[in-house]
Amino acid sequence: MILLFPRNPWPFHRATLALALALACATALPASARELRVCADPNNLPFSNSAGEGFENRIVAIVARDLGATVSYTWWAQRRGFLRHTILAGRCDLVAGLPVGIELLRPTRPYYRSTYVVVSRPNGPTIASLDDPSLARLTVGVQLAGLDAASTPPAQALARRGLTDTVRGYLLTGDYAQANPPARIVEAVARGEVDLALAWGPMAGYFAARATPRLRVDPVRPALDGPKGPMVFDIAMAVRREDEPLRREVGAALERHRTEINAILADYSVPRLDRPAEAAAP
User: Fold this and answer.
1) Distance CA 99, CA 76 (A)
2) How far is C-alpha 91 from the geometric centre of its chain's CA atoms?
3) Domains in the chain and their CATH numbers?
4) Residue partners of 63: CB distance under 8 A and separation at least 6
5) Exposed end of the chain (fewer CB within 10 Å): N or C?
6) Is residue 220 within 8 Å of 198, Cβ to Cβ?
């Protein structure tokens, strides 16, 4: 048998060693990690913030873990044009915490149902319904999405009843230089600037529970104030209409972790009108 050796064995050994190291590194490195691209507001507790402290941040993290993905956020203030500039512009693939029924997007099955609420001080005045006669004598805070005084369901309901003289509006966007602008309406109740406020439940419930003393939170009645006046909304995550596979994946993950999600919502004092134990197919 004739054995053939290169005249200079060292290049051969170096090439063999380099190949072995490359193969070892290739097997040690994880496969390309999946990315879950999410658009959210960086300054909007209890829903989300850039520090990941909101309940939507925590629920998104559960979904990402279930899908074997890492979360990549695009931060954008949640005001008019939010969807147009974010998910519809291709900056992300998923938005959490949207009401079911937005035509431009496809929602998952809802993971909770909440309502607008009446926020009042423990020993202060409150109302039984939007038809309570005492409303005419009370200073009432309402949320405004813009300069339109009838831009949220409770504001519209009061306007239909002619109750505008004692209404004080608080912009949802507010002063973005401050933390969590929507919270100003709850702080106004705590400070006595208004007698009570009509506000979206998840936000109001969170800040009311953390006020000193704790503020009272009751669902707005009636829950359906005419054909265009719902006070109750099912909340879901949403994708672009063509992203049906992602919608199904996210929906299935939400269902698998329903117990964890219910616990998170309870931690954040989210008022709920659904039964936390109920489950639905994705």
Assistant:
1) 18
2) 17
3) 34-112+233-267 (3.40.190.10), 115-219 (3.40.190.10)
4) 36, 237, 250, 253, 254, 257
5) N
6) yes
Contact of 236 with 90, CB cutoff 8 Å:
no
Burial class (CB in 10 A: 0-12, 13-18, 19+), 212: exposed
Instruction: Write out pLDDT tens, residues 60-75.
Output: 999 999 999 999 999 9
Q: What is the pLDDT of residues 123-156, one digit of tens each?
A: 999 999 999 999 999 999 999 986 555 479 999 9
Is-contact 231 222, C-beta < 8 A?
yes
